[in-house]
Amino acid sequence: MKTSFAATVLLAAFATPAAHAQSYPAKPITLVVPFAAGGPTDVVARTLGAAMGRTLNQTVVIENKTGAGGTLAAAHTARATPDGYTFLIHHNGMATAPALYRKLPYNPLTDFEYVSQVIDVPMTLLGRKDLPAKDFTELRAYLKAQGDKVNLAHAGLGAVSHLCGVLFRQAIGADVTTVPYQGTGPAMNALLAGQVDLLCDQTTSTTQHIKAGSVKLYGVTTAARLKTLPAAPTLAEQGLKGFEVVVWHGIYAPKGTPKEAIDKFGAALRAALKDPVVAQRLDELGAVVVPEAKQTPEGLRTWLAEETARYAPVIKAAGQFAD
Ligand code: MLT
Asked: What start and end residues bound the annotated signal peptide (predicted)?
């Protein structure tokens, strides 16, 4: 059939808006998690991802890309196509990795777009249920006596469970052996099975096991006691003066990701953090949603730069590197 010039122009006029009608996001979005399923980063990503998917009208697919203390996932995200369909959720490891790793294949301060800070999470120092030490005082004495026969599980160099474990080991001056896992999900399973002795991990994954009595709780890593575990003393009040580790989380995208995608993903995150069901769940798990001023690209970018500068001299002084 022959079409006149006028009809072609008319068809094109109708066709063009239709072609652009399917605006972002037009397909599922991947949220990369640097640690194994079942761990605290995974729990938070899945809780937020489900709520964000409802706002975005698309599925947020969680991809657990484990290894090298979270640096493999960050490298993967830095190299991903910047089309708005790949994001990364990561914690303090984004700020510690440049000082920990001699050959980091990405620069956290220049190779990403920044979406938002998310939540702050306290940590808990746990022991297997049948560890002979019944409280922190006994634990100290036990570790002094047993030395490197005691195992502390963690999620790799760059993981906060490792940072917390190493800081704790230094603070008490004991020679605990560290055992790496792909995330604290599997590390917690090893603790529950009695295969390792100690684990320092975030309340977002430990609260349920503490409340069920399936692990021993020796203390929390915050300056003040937690309202979710009010009976648990802080490590600082038990003699480790100034001991404080709080885990912060941020969401990143590959450099060059369109602003529309950053804005829409960020808006969906802010809506999820305000969702009453999500907010209650995070609250029960001890997580604290960051103030709205930090729920911005600039809020995360500034915080990451400050944290990177803060950690670098501390890690260099400790002389800890990985190749
Ligand atoms: C960490 O130790 O860095 C994380 O808690 C690991 C995880 O999310 O599994």
From this structure: 1-21
Ligand 1 touching residue 127 (CB < 6 A): no
pLDDT given for residue 316 in this prediction:
83
Specify the residue with its C-alpha closest to ligand 1, atom 8. Answer: 41
Q: 252 in ligand 1 pocket by Cβ < 6 Å?
A: no
Which DSSP string corresponds to 238-290?
Answer: GT-TT---EEEEEEEEETT--HHHHHHHHHHHHHHHH-HHHHHHHHHTT-EEP
Mean pLDDT, all residues of the chain: 92
Of the candidates 145, 166, 144, 146, the one whose C-alpha atom is nearest the C-alpha of residue 155 is: 166
Q: Which domains does the chain have, with CATH numbers?
A: 27-120+247-318 (3.40.190.150), 122-220 (3.40.190.10)
State both tokens at 291.
């103030």
| 7 has pLDDT over 50 | no
pLDDT(17) > 50: no
The mean pLDDT of 230-248, rounded to a whole number, is: 96
Cα of 184 from ligand 1 centre, angstroms: 5
